[in-house]
Amino acid sequence: MSKEKISIRAVGLVIDRNQILAVQENDSLWCFPGGRQELGETQPDAIMRELNEEVNLHVIPVRLLYIAEFMSGDGHVVEFYWLCSCHNTEYEIPKDEKSVIAARWIPMEQLHNNPILPELVKKKVICDYKEFPVLAEYLGTRSA
Question: Minimal CA–CA distance to 99: which of 44, 45, 23, 47?
Fold first, then answer.
């Protein structure tokens, strides 16, 4: 039996007032918020749960923008990036949150100066910000 694993992640691109939300994970990397989709859970439900758990934000997934993959050793991750809206932009990292240590709103015009991973998705967000694609775009595999 193979020990290879595949993981499916739902990631929120939460943009409000020309700013995008980023989180710092406990490995010190900054990224867009989201996490692993659970068995029996839809992508939109996974994003809503993850952002509520990580930063106590209630978001609404608007539409799927990008799909990216990452392969390393015996692991394979498929990431779905969703444009999200939120009614309240004040976040709070719950005390029991284990994976996120910080969060911040980054002005879109400063996104290129911030070390957000994955770089491939960050570049697409910067490029597409004024007019996101109508249909989801497959971005291929991304490097570590």
Answer: 23
